[in-house]
Amino acid sequence: MLPPHRQYLSFSLRNNRGDFRICQYQGESYLVRTHNSSFIPLLSINQMRLKGRMMQANALAALALGEAVGLHQSAMLDALQHFRGLPHRCAWVANSQGIDWYNDSKGTNVGATIAAIKSLEKPGQIILIAGGEGKGANFAYLAEVVAHHCRACVLIGQDAYRIAEPLADSVPVSHAQSMEEAVAQAAKLASTGDAILLSPACASFDMFKNYEHRGQVFEAAVRQLI
């Protein structure tokens, strides 16, 4: 529970603030609980199944909330080690030949895709698979993030060429007629250490029943390929 002299607990992805934060400990990044000027290491980031800064922020928030309502810390840390996350939300799918595959089919708008790209923390090492029904979105907002974080983009769906227009000056852009073709193209473009991210920034209904179906087709194509 909250200490009697505190009205809230805080968390931060920065290492200089927050009751729960991320700090370096024995050469690794750890979720930690701070006490005055020191900290207690709780869990290595490498021990979490959830990947990316967005998921780390969620973990810190959960730890802060759990402590505030009196949950046992050991139970929370065990959950963080084993929880795989919700399907189709920047979910890790597989690693093959040193390349990580992520399914963020729930990323149906530009803002969600920008957040997913940034969360992987792999500047210049992401192959982005995007496209579908654009819903009138302004894809120019993707350009700066893609230029910094992505090696290439593979586009699918009815608005692929609208997406390509603002991105073409940032990274190589290719087009695929199916998810299976997009997965195959992305695999050829990727190198060891890269991440291949499905985060469409679009609705799915031009090619799929819904975003879940799109994510399922993506994961099936990945597993068949690797």
UniProtKB/TrEMBL annotation:
Keyword Secreted on this protein? no
Single GO term (MF):
ATP binding
**Keywords, ordered alphabetically:** ATP-binding, Cytoplasm, Ligase, Nucleotide-binding
Its GO biological process annotations read: cell division; regulation of cell shape
Where do the Mur ligase C-terminal domain residues begin and end?
Answer: 88-202
Any one GO cellular component localisation term in the record: cytoplasm
Output this protein's name: UDP-N-acetylmuramoylalanine/D-glutamate ligase
Q: Species name for this entry?
A: Candidatus Thiomargarita nelsonii
